[in-house]
Structure formats: structure tokens, C-alpha cells
Amino acid sequence: MFKELIRVFEYREMLFHSVRKELRVRYKGSVLGFLWTFINPLMQLVVYSFVFNSIMGARAPEGVNYTLMIFVGLVPWTCISSTINQSANAIIGNGNLIKKIYFPRLILPLSLTLTNMVNMLLTGIIVFAACFVLTPNPPLTWTYVFLPIVFVAVFLLSFAFAVLLSAITVYFRDLEHIFAIITMVWFYLTPIIYPIDLIKSRSWVSPTVLTIYKLNPAYGIVDSFQKIILYGKIPDWMHLGYVYAFSLVLLFIALFVFDRCQRRFAEEI
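User: That's the sequence. What structure does it adopt?
Assistant: C-alpha cells below.
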């Protein structure tokens, strides 16, 4: 199982070219090209901000711009959800390549994850610019040094799902549609378009319900981004630690499943 990771390192040049190819092909032939990396999340931001802030009256905590709050949450969420939704096609979509030559199959979900991570980092540039535009006194503090730790958490969670789903979707094609629905529901169970204080203020939310709510691994990631960028605070290490533990366990399971499934990829595709 872990030998596959060693082989990936040996084929690192192929991984590099695969990521570069993914980035080029994704917007090949489009007039705006890489600008779509910024346009897509910005359009989502405008829609969510208008619907939930202007129409439904949703509010951010005092002293925080609502639009910026959504933007900060959308950046990691878009990376996670895009990786999950695209991973269903990671193996199936490369059937011809798998049948022709040998290479570590793990490169396919890994290159997909890294591509979305690059897009997330590029979108992060817009977030920093938005901090200056939407906030009179942006909290640019030393706590930004913790952002790489959160980025690694995003990578581990995304990669774990990509490895698992890319393998089992080869055998169960309906999972592609099932997980598209799951990620849609998952989005609304994560405090992106509403603050966590809104959940806490509900009378029916007991401490037990709140604890279960926070077991959502995306919660710890979004909460960490918000604490660092919006408030200039240190992330909650317990929540972030849970994300790391959840992701590593899921990744271990995913690698085991992938190792068993890849033996018949060529036949099933």
C-alpha cells in the first residue's frame, strides 16, 4: 500500500506534468483562460451575498463584513468540493492511458487534488485583496503564519476523498451522482453562508447537537480560515487536530481500498 506512495515520488516528473496539463486543459480554448479561476468563486460570492444578505437578511458577527465572511469560507470549500466531485472521473476518464502504459495510478487523484490546491492558492490572492477593500482595518497579524497548517489540512482531506472515490467509482458509477448531492448538503452544514453563532443561538441546539455539528471536518477548516483572516486569531487546535486525525484515518482507508481496487482498473474501465 505505502509502496505506491514511494512510486509516486519516483514518477514525480510525470506528476508535475500532469498537474500542469490539468491547469492548461481546464481552460483551454476559453477567451479568459486562467481568469475563470477567479471569476467562478467571485460569481458564487455575488449570488450568495445577494440572496442571503440582501434578501434573507443574514448577518455576520459584529465587526465582520458578511461578503468577506462568505469569501473566506468559499476558498477552502471550493477546493474540497471540486476535488470530491471531479475525483469520480479521475480513473475512468484516463482509461486509455491506464491500458497503454504503467505508472502509479495514485498519480491521477493526486494530480487532481494538487490542481485544485493551486486554484485555491490563486483565489486566496483575491481574498487578501478583498480584505483591504471590504474591511477598513484588515487584521493582518502574525497569526497568518498558521495558514500553511490549514492548507495542509485542506490537502489531506481533499486527497483522502479523491483517492477513495476515484477507486470505488470505477466499480459503482452511481457514486458520482450520489456524492454531488452529498456535497450540496454538506455545504449547508458548514458555517460558510452563516456564522456559527447563528447555530449556537437556536434554542433547539443543545451542547450535544453542537458537538455533533462540529464533527463535520469542513467545520474545523472553515473556522480556522475565519479565525486567522477575519479576526487575526490563532485557530482552534482541537478542531484543527480533529481534521488532521479524520483526514489521516480516511487517507489510510482510502489507500488500502485503492490498492485493492487498482488491480482490476483496466478490466473494469
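Residues 224 and 252 are 24 Å apart (CA to CA).
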